[in-house]
Amino acid sequence: MKKIIVFSMLCACCILIASAAAPLMPDDFRSCADARGPVKPDALYQVHLTDEIIQGAAPGFEDVRLLGPSGKETPFSIIEHILPAEHVEVYPLEITGFAGDSSSAIISMKLPEKHKPISALDLEITDTDFKKKASISGSGDGKAWKTLTEDTIYDFSSRVNLRKTRIEFKKSAYRYYRLKLTELKAITETQPSLRLKYEGLDFSVNGLKKKELHIHSVEGSTSARKGNEPVYDSKVFAALSPTLDKSGDTVLVLKADLPIDKLFLDVTNPYYYRSMSVYYSDFGKEDSYQFLTQQSVYRFPLSAEQQETRNYIEQRTTKHGYYKIVIVNKNNPPLDMKGITLSWVRKDLYFIALNNAGRYSLCFGNPELTRPDYDIAHFINQNTLLQHAYEKLDTAPARENTAFKQPVSREKKAWLEKMVLRVVVVILVIGMGFWLFTLMKKAGKGK
To answer: Is residue 331 included in any domain, yes or no?
Structure first.
């Protein structure tokens, strides 16, 4: 009887030991990429997570581990690469002069005496349905002028929600500025007429009548960048195989294994205006796709020389295996697409080197691991990164671990452990019952 109880207790201990987390080794991962370059103890390092690493890792990097010298697990923090917002100062410009005729208008302005270099002018215009060529010049004395940029301002409010009254240029320390507005060069009778019609929208080079604009005020900004600015990584998919569905819409499926923040179309058509829907799936089966977003992409002429283009959509999503893109063609021919580019906010891994001996390996590809919780994330994060100095390390191409074996899933492992525990409990109950029966039998014989 004692042997049975001892055996049962040994089984239970074995289960507990097997359930405990064993130190991870490179062979516990599908792939590893070595960090290249010398390291110094107690120094902070940055490792860029390339598209190869992102494609092989879990969507939230739950299975990523950094193994240091002797295979020791090294704590790290993964942070998105986002440039902090610049402090923007805005100055009102004083209108000092105006000259104009039926074809152009020149507005002279100056900044306050005390000002910092500016890189953008914002025009307050209440008018709608216009398009003008805008030329900005700068001067230090209001006499000798240098052209800073040429751009276009426009408003298509009666047709689509599209408006632009900001003009950006390289930072300029000039105090005096001159804005020249002229009519955009129209299509001549000898040139082919470019027109774009789509669901009632008509973008024509000569479609808007000439009109004078009323500029209420002009402001200069020290930075064209407002708010935080992400840094993007990207991957180009050039080998496309588009098909047409029953409605005549273009359908494209990408096997990506990547996240998305922006999706760009490389289109050769001179003009277009299409509605585009994007769906995602982790398996690629037709009935597994989920809706992600629907947005419009377009290119249309502003003049004989200028075009307005938005060939991308913005929508953040975590990594998915497949993306399906549906472009509504209506009565138009399919777009001539040369490629699709997926962009996502760059991710970097930060760690503090333990010593300067041996190599560090970034390992990934074990779906049964859960996200680690390291102390370093509390003081090396998005809010504090700029307070720390760090050095950069790149990674060698990832290598496949031939000794890697797909681990038993957490669900199956939990089920097996539960069944073994049940068996142990049954054995213990039977053993205890037999032991009690034996005691009672001996007690009866004693009487």
So the answer is: yes
- Asked if residues 53 and 259 have their Cβ atoms less than 8 Å apart, the reply is no
- End-of-domain residue from the set 172, 190, 221: 221
CA 71/CA 62 separation, integer angstroms: 19
Calpha distance 183→303 (Å, rounded): 9
Query: What is the distance between the terminal CA atoms of the chain, rounded to a whole angstrom?
Result: 24
Stated length of the chain: 447
Please check whether residue 226 lies inside any domain of the structure.
Answer: no
Q: How much is the pLDDT for 151?
A: 92
Q: Give the chain's domain count.
A: 3
Among candidates 80, 50, 72, which has minimal Cα distance to 398? 50
pLDDT at residue 18, as a whole number: 46
Report the candidate in 424, 291, 399 with the shortest Cα–Cα distance to residue 16. Answer: 424
Q: Are 202 and 195 in contact (CB under 8 A)?
A: yes
**Looking at the whole model, is its pTM more than 0.90?**
no
**Strand partners for 229:** 83
Question: Is residue 426 in some structural domain?
Answer: no
Q: Are 105 and 180 in contact (CB under 8 A)?
A: yes
Same domain, 337 and 353: no
- Cβ neighbors of 378 (< 8 A, separation 6 or more) are none
Same domain assignment for residues 102 and 21: no
Domain residues for the domain of 183 are 90-221
Mean pLDDT, the chain, integer: 85
Would you say residue 279 lies in a domain?
A: yes
Confidence of residue 186 (pLDDT cuts 50, 70, 90): low
Instruction: Provide the residue type at 224 as one letter.
Output: A
- Pairing relation of β-strands 391-395 and 44-48? parallel
Instruction: Round to whole Å and give the CA distance between 21 and 83.
Output: 38
Q: Are 120 and 213 members of one domain?
A: yes
- Rounded mean pLDDT, 399-415: 70
| CATH number, residue 130 | 2.60.120
